[in-house]
């Protein structure tokens, strides 16, 4: 049986399209579209979008490189 390593570092999660929109400087409506189309590395948890801040930053930094 393979064990998965679990980091003890706290997650910096951003909850909800409105918060994500504020962070990336887009409208909430635009962010909903991006989330529904799978354009952002986010997941839906109990009906609410959530994304890890470091993954969101890495996603945008990767696009500019």
From TrEMBL:
Domain Helix-turn-helix: 18-60
A Pfam family reported for this protein in Swiss-Prot or TrEMBL: HTH_17
Name of the protein: Helix-turn-helix domain-containing protein
